[in-house]
Amino acid sequence: MDTEVRLREWTVWIPKLDPNHDGLRIGHVSDVHVGIVTPDQRIRNAVGLLAEASPDLCLLTGDFASRRPAPLARLGRLLTGLPVDSTYFVLGNHDHLVDAEQVTRELEGVGYTHLDNRHRTLNLRGAPLHVIGFDDPVTRRHRPAEAMRGVPELGTRVLLAHQAESVGEVLELGQHVDLCVSGHTHGGQIYVPGMTDALMAKLGLRHLRGLCRYDQHGPWLHVTHGVGAAVSPLRVASRPEVGLLTLRRDRSGVSFRG
Q: Which residue ranges does the record assign to the Calcineurin-like phosphoesterase domain (predicted)?
């Protein structure tokens, strides 16, 4: 079975980013789908790529499970190796459909922090960064107002949500985030430009892959292809991947004074 996974690097230009966070790096893993469709070695390769990159923060955005609970017994062992004091996770629809409690036990057992409709404020490089976690929006277990309640206004805001369209609910609350990291779509899995986008849009999924804006001036979204799959291993133009996002202060609107 194919164990290849690639590390894709992106630069996220954020207006008004705290200067201390300029250059901060975030690792992103999603859709591991431990089970017979996803080779265990591919998962270990994904962890190894991120561990070697030494990001400041690691974010895992759900669908650790596939279709049966038995493979979850090896989930913690497969995902161990990321920094325990700066790795956070949320759950996806497959996790709730299979066994959310076991997924949570496995990941907390190796030291990772579950953000279940809540946030955590970190001091990174001398400035506050708020990591906000939504429970799975696909199965309607997310509670945006609860997760956003009490998030300090000052500081960088990063949202973990299994499905990227959740950002719209943040904006409806009159809140903002600088970046949302998500998975769920597998980059289309079998991706035919135009056709796949149109089909997924009919399901309400307008953001399928890569780094993009939620709307013209909205927050940045990173939607990864993910590592595995639950049903079919076939992928077309959607290679398995993990992301490494570098935050940069966007100075495009600042006049040059020499």
A: 24-187
